[in-house]
Design a protein that fits this description.
The complex is a heterodimer of chains A (77) and B (616).
Chain A lengths: L1 E7 L5 H12 L10 E3 L4 E6 L6 H9 L5 E8 L1
Antiparallel strand pairs in A: 1-3, 1-4, 2-3
Chain B lengths: L1 H6 L1 H20 L4 H28 L5 H14 L3 H25 L1 H7 L5 E5 L5 E5 L8 E4 L8 E12 L1 H4 L5 E3 L4 E2 L4 E13 L5 H14 L3 H28 L2 H10 L3 H20 L2 E3 L2 H7 L4 E5 L10 E7 L4 H12 L5 H10 L7 E7 L3 E6 L2 E6 L1 H6 L6 H12 L3 E7 L2 E9 L6 H10 L4 E5 L4 H11 L3 E3 L4 H13 L4 E5 L5 H6 L2 E4 L5 H6 L2 E3 L6 H36 L5 H20 L8
Parallel strand pairs in B: 9-16, 9-18, 16-17, 18-19, 19-20
Antiparallel strand pairs in B: 1-2, 1-3, 3-7, 4-5, 4-6, 4-7, 8-20, 10-15, 11-12, 12-13, 13-14, 14-15
The chains are: A alpha+beta (77), B alpha+beta (616).
Chain lengths: 77, 616
């Protein structure tokens, strides 16, 4: 499993968080329990399986919603 | 295309507002209704674009967001040719979002200041021996790094070569620079004020103490209390419920205008944003003042605390004991002092240190067969004499007789609040020394403030003798004090208080009192930002700064109040709007949107007040 921390542009509405959470959770290969959208620090934290999914695909899913991804970090866990 | 429109949201808002002004000017001044109508149409069309895109994206991931409600409402207004309403509603919605973003950034500013202190680059020693600037993410454990004057230490590590003064305020809260030379530990995020150091990286990135503090604060500001989780669940069903309500109203009344007005009025904005805003501003204020609050649950409990339990050592006192009283029962003072000093120099116990400091210059003898008795003292041989240095229990254990007069002295010394160290040579008591700790400066005033803030009981549980504890209690005006307590006695005592229904906060140093820290509703660590303190406690007072405690309590109370105010404002506004739409003539979509956006700004501004909170 990989642990990803994705920094987004500043989030301003709590429902943005809900949208992003739903979008990320719907991706195959994401550990649904691990998905955490930090509204105030505008970050998404999640665990995913590198065999099924790539960080680029996760970033794409978020930016498709209209939220800019600023930086992401992936760490082996 | 979608992203282009979203990125131009501010421009669209501006154009929309401008078109609305033109529309009204042409209607009122030159009486041109065609310009009026078409300006509003254009304003509505470009205004609805970004909202509709967001609504569409939300629906794709099965979320009925506020954007969905507003989009349907505006389309409805279009359908019944209410161009004034649609233009004004879209403009207000976009303009409100713009203001929300600006003000929200303000409430988050305190925490942003903290995260921006994170180091970004490092000078890393390459294979060639040169130092090259790299990003801090590229530094790995074991790398050798160069830190120059004025630069931030990029990672946790230890000094290899060089000397310098480091300002560690970002970790410990202490602003006096600390001298560092070879072998000393350095922390990421601290600043080298002068000198040049080469350090070896030991912990990098999120593993550093600074990284942990940031992670903690970031998680804390987004952590949710029971009440917030309820609001979250509530708003998940609330928005669809508003949609259904408006459909029902339409079916029964056949009145499009009424139905779409309900959509706008029902927007839950202030309700979902009110509590997080108070939370982030309160935690931000704390972070700025050396108080780490772990989330809104902590704020909730600590604001209602009944009893604060202190572990005396190092919390209320300086933790630097000094010899206060001494009595000798000997004719050869010189020899007794020399023996005592020789034995004590074998130990690094704080009481031993205090004695050595007090005796000063003396002859040191060769000490043999040293036996350290835990919780008692030291037994050793000097020049063939058996020397026992320690407390009363040790003397009894060694079968040393304590006569009537010495016993009286012991009682007297204990009453004065001393810890006792006795010295016996070959079975005869030669000296009795009383050592006391000093009370921290300002603690008395801080405790008075805590009482003024509504804390009912201030309790001390200490491992020291009852005399010491009673003395501190009397001097500080505490409500209760218990001595001779082991860590497990302390946690049992806390359980007893909790069984009485009290909400208990425990203040300790975070290392040997972890059971009590964990058991109490609120564990408060007086840590200098150490890992253990950060992990086991709910509130961390940086740099062991006791005077932060009243600020912390006042702040949590203010924050909890602020949340309640915001909930009342938000719920009040929705009730007010919904009653008016059914029972008054003047309510329409534009006014509804205006009140709705205004209420969001009011809760944000209300939350922002917490940033400037100061304890009295």
């Amino acid at each position: 499993m990989q642990k990803a921390i994705i920094q987004l542009e500043t989030l301003t509405c709590p429902s943005c968080g809900q949208k992003i959470e739903n979008a990320v959770k719907s991706l195959n290969g994401v550990d649904k329990q691990s998905v955490k959208v930090l509204f105030n620090s505008s970050k998404v934290k999640l665990d995913f399986d590198l065999k099924i999914l790539s960080i680029e695909k996760i970033e794409k899913a978020i930016s498709a919603l209209g939220y800019e991804v600023k930086k992401s970090q992936v760490k082996e866990i | 295309m979608q992203r282009f429109i979203l990125s131009k949201k501010n421009l669209i808002t501006l154009i929309g507002g401008f078109l609305i002004v033109i529309a009204y000017l042409s209607k009122l001044i030159i009486g041109n209704l065609a310009v009026f109508y078409w300006a509003l149409v254009i304003a509505s069309v470009i205004g609805i674009l970004p909202i509709a895109i967001q609504a569409f994206q939300a629906l794709k991931v099965k979320v009925i967001s506020i954007d969905v409600l507003v989009t349907i409402a505006v389309l409805g207004a279009f359908a019944i040719n209410e161009m004034e309403e649609s233009a004004i509603v879209t403009f207000l919605f976009l303009f409100g979002a713009f203001l929300e973003q600006r003000t929200l950034n303000k409430t988050r500013s305190a925490i942003k200041e903290l995260t921006e202190m994170a180091p970004e680059s490092a000078l890393k020693k390459m294979v060639s021996g040169e130092f090259v600037e790299v990003e801090v993410d590229e530094v790995e454990v074991g790398d050798i790094l160069l830190v120059k004057t004025g630069a931030k230490v990029p990672v946790d590590g230890s000094v290899l070569i060089g000397e310098g003064y480091i300002n560690e305020a970002s970790i410990t809260g202490e602003s006096l620079p600390v001298s560092k030379s070879s072998g000393a530990g350095v922390y990421a995020g601290t600043i080298l004020e002068n000198g040049t150091l080469q350090i070896v990286a030991e912990k990098v990135g999120e593993d550093t103490t600074f990284g942990k503090i940031i992670e903690l604060v970031e998680e804390a500001q987004d952590s949710k209390s029971e009440a917030e989780r309820f609001i979250d669940r509530f708003s998940k069903y609330y928005t669809p419920a508003v949609l259904i309500l408006s459909v029902i109203v339409y079916i029964f009344s056949r009145n499009v205008e009424l139905a779409i007005t309900i959509l706008v009025l029902g927007c839950p904005g202030a309700l979902v944003i009110g509590v997080p805003v108070s939370n982030v501003a309160g935690i931000g204020n704390g972070a700025r003042n050396g108080i780490l609050l772990k989330g809104s649950e902590v704020i909730h409990y600590f604001s209602k605390v009944d009893t604060i339990v202190f572990d005396k050592t190092g919390t209320l006192t300086i933790g630097n004991p000094k010899v206060a009283d001494k009595m000798f029962y000997t004719s050869d003072l010189e020899r007794v002092l020399s023996y005592l000093a020789s034995v004590e120099s074998e130990s690094d116990h704080p009481l031993g240190k205090a004695i050595l400091e007090d005796i000063g210059n003396t002859t040191f003898y060769n000490v043999e067969n040293t036996d350290v008795i835990k919780g008692g003292g030291i037994v050793a041989n000097i020049e063939g004499h058996k020397v026992v240095v320690g407390n009363v229990a040790l003397m009894k254990q060694e079968n040393i007789t304590i006569n009537e007069s010495i016993r009286n002295d012991i009682v007297l010394y204990e009453q004065k609040g001393n810890s006792l160290v006795m010295t016996s040579i070959d079975g005869k008591i030669e000296a009795l020394i009383g050592i006391r700790d000093q009370i921290r400066l300002g603690v008395k005033e801080d405790l008075r403030k805590l009482k003024a803030l509504g804390v009912k009981n201030l309790v001390v549980l200490s491992g020291d003798n009852q005399g010491t504890v009673d003395l501190v209690t009397k001097e500080l005006g505490l409500t209760e004090a218990h001595g001779h307590m082991l860590p497990e006695d302390k946690s049992k005592y806390i359980e007893k208080l909790q069984a009485k229904g009290q909400i208990v906060a425990f203040v300790g140093d975070g290392v040997n009192d972890s059971p009590s820290l964990a058991l109490a509703e609120i564990g408060i660590a007086m840590g200098s930002g150490t890992d253990v303190a950060i992990e086991t406690s709910d509130i961390v007072l940086m740099n062991s700064n006791f005077s932060r405690l009243p600020h912390a309590l006042g702040l949590t109370k203010a924050t909890a109040n602020n949340m309640r105010q915001n909930i009342v404002i938000a719920v009040g506004v929705v009730i007010f709007l919904l009653t008016n739409v059914f029972f008054s003539e003047w309510m329409n979509m534009s006014i509804g949107m205006l009140v709705h956006e205004a209420s969001i700004l009011v809760v944000i501004l209300n939350g922002m007040r917490l940033l400037s909170y100061k304890s009295k």
